[in-house]
Amino acid sequence: MKFRFKTREVLVFILVSLCVYFTFIFGFAWIYHATDSIEMTPYSKTIGYKNAEKINFEKAVYFSIVSFHTIGFGDIHPISQFGRQVVMIQSTISLFFTAIFSGFLVYFVIKRPQDVFTTKKVYIRFRKGHYFLSLRVGNKSPDTIYLKTKIEAWTIENNSRVRAFRTEEDLPDLEKILYYDIQLDDIGGHELYLAIQDALTNGTLLHMKFSFIGNDIKTGEQVAYAKYYDSRHLRFGQMFLNVYSWDTNGRRKNFRWGNFERIEEMEPAIRNRFFEKS
After folding, report:
1. Residue 144's closest CA among 218, 51, 47, 45?
2. Which tens digits make up the pLDDT trace of 82-136?
3. CATH of domain 5-110
4. How far apart are CA 202 and CA 189, in angstroms?
5. Residue ranges per domain, the chain?
6. Of 251, 228, 253, 231, nearest to 243 (Cα)?
7. What are phi and psi of 48, to 5 degrees?
8. Is there a common fold for 5-110 and 116-276?
9. Which one of 118, 158, 214, 277 is least enclosed by Cβ atoms within 10 Å?
């Protein structure tokens, strides 16, 4: 049986929690039994127990469960100072365990999977007679709306960060695929164009960061993403290969995520012309 990543994550969390729970139960039961620190209360003899003063391991497990959940039926009680201290420790642990388990379980159930990702490289693309700095954003989760993106570029000089470029932009909803493009041979992208040329020509290390924030369309939960690149991640290309096709109803189908990083090669002449412009 195949489970989605989120389902597997929840099941693993529950399994680990149960292991921790039973470790506490049987661990404290062993302490109670090994130290003879608990016994049956006198009235328990009247409700069917034989040899009520004798506590076996089964009864110690029962007392451990009752104490862990702070139920306190009273048919078994600690008879020494050590036993009372162990009961207090176990009850305190149970409060924290229950709170942590409940909180994390709710978190795992309602949280959005982090299935947003970008290309591992940043691409200098040539389209419709212009050069663009491009990357592709993928999303395997519910759509993200109210998308606000930012890209920054900087160099390090004399142990200080020197900004080369920064821009912020509101983008369309992130459904499954989104293309982020900055036109380099335009007034708005000219500074970035020069910084990239310097990095590729002179070996200057240009750092870049792409980030965005938005909201999950189903839950309203804020979605944040950031990816760091540098000039060693720059590649030349033209058109990205298709990741999906369209059906007759205008819906995406036949996703081929293996094409996500694939791009057509740029012709050498067009690549050389990139370094001639300024």
Report:
1. 218
2. 988 999 999 899 889 888 888 877 776 666 556 889 999 999 999 989 999 999 9
3. 1.10.287.70
4. 20
5. 5-110, 116-276
6. 253
7. 105, -5
8. no
9. 158
DSSP string, the chain: ----HHHHHHHHHHHHHHHHHHHHHHHHHHHHHHHT-EEE-GGGGGGT-SSTT---HHHHHHHHHHHHTT---SSEEE-SHHHHHHHHHHHHHHHHHHHHHHHHHHHHHHSPP--EEE-SSEEEEEETTEEEEEEEEEE-SS-EEEEEEEEEEEEEETTEEEEEEEEEEEE--BSSEEEEEEESSSGGGHHHHHHHHHHHHH----EEEEEEEEEETTT--EEEEEEEEEGGGEEEESPBPPS-EE-TTS-EES--GGGTT-BPPPPHHHHHHHHH--
Q: Using CA atoms, how far apart are residues 278 and 275, in angstroms rounded to an integer?
A: 8
CATH class, 116-276 region: mainly beta
Pairing of β 207-216 and β 222-230:
antiparallel
- In the chain, the percentage of residues whose pLDDT exceeds 70 is 90
